[in-house]
Amino acid sequence: MTESASSAPAALRRAQDAALVLEDGTIYRGSAYGATGQALGEAVFATGMTGYQETLTDPSYAGQIVVQTSPHIGITGVTSEDDESARMWPSGYVVRTASRITSNWRAEEPLGAQLERDGVVGIAGVDTRAITRRIRDVGAMRAGVFSGEALTDDAAMLAVVRESPQMAGRSLAATVSTTEPYALPAEGESIGTLAVLDLGIKGSTLKYLQQQGFDLVVLPQDSTLEQVLAHEPVAAFYSNGPGDPAASGSQVELLQGLLRAELPFFGICFGNQLLGRALGFGTYKLPFGHRGINQPVLDVATGRVEITSQNHGFAVDAAIGEQLESPAGFGRVEVSHYSLNDRVVEGLRALDIPAFSVQYHPESAAGPNDAHHMFGQFRDLVIAKKGAQA
Ligand SMILES: NC(=O)CC[C@H](N)C(=O)O
User: Which of 125, 134, 211, 238 is spaced 20 to 30 Å from 259 by Cα?
Assistant: First the structure.
């Protein structure tokens, strides 16, 4: 059954004027939504039932075509208050049913209007359950959304998709990072300056760090060790962000310098992968990744389970349940958290230097608040380090 079935009332009949083309040759036809044109990227599925606006404005989604498994998208429109960054980042957007109306007192405009303004090429009216199963079975694939003049014959569109870059090996930090440093003040009494490396940071993360008493200096992704240390930070933070951690050599080197300078460190998502690499572990590409807001994670130290927000396609390669030695010479390390769905590493803790990180998103946005306390743990680590130095 498609919405263009002849029995559908005229108002519900939609044009078949867009196509989603997967690298394996599968093609889904639907109607254009948001911007018109051609979008290329890795097709990934996101399972959150809420929070489409936070997903779309998360810079970690740059270079990807997001398939929403939730079948009805857009009913609450968009409001700038919920933006996680200055724009929507996925190259393409795939939904089953795009809401024809906007119904929320906070809405400033329909979702489609912002997709269009930010150049996100979307497609609606496709079977997102079938697409998700395809991605789950075949693995993450390159894909394209084509509409308007870009909608050509199948073979031509497939050739374009197959010539597009793979996510593995791709560096995207320069696309999303601030180009100039900027400062944000602590909320309440300051405990010092935190050097924040912007690899695609979200507004909520900045807010939670400010709430912990850090004066933030947010730095471009290509900052050098000298540039970071010139701000006399009491600690360093690496954000989430798009791309393959194996293609982030300069940020890994910077982090090794920061760890040698004994700055307390906290990293989220991409930041967790880069801590893993800085400590000397490898990273690898997951078959189809974790993207959703109800991902169960075990905190090994406490035995507690947290329901977390996640968005990652790569992971750290480190053994769970044993004390590890950092191959890069930073002492003992342990896997602090892992996924209860597939035992993928979800957190790292160094035991001989003040550094830890999580693969999931403690700032949630969208998602549950279970892991907000990680920001408090970072504050405690920084205060403990200061106390030890006094
Ligand atoms: N949200 C993130 O920071 C994602 C990290 C990395 N780009 C990945 O896909 O695994």
Answer: 211
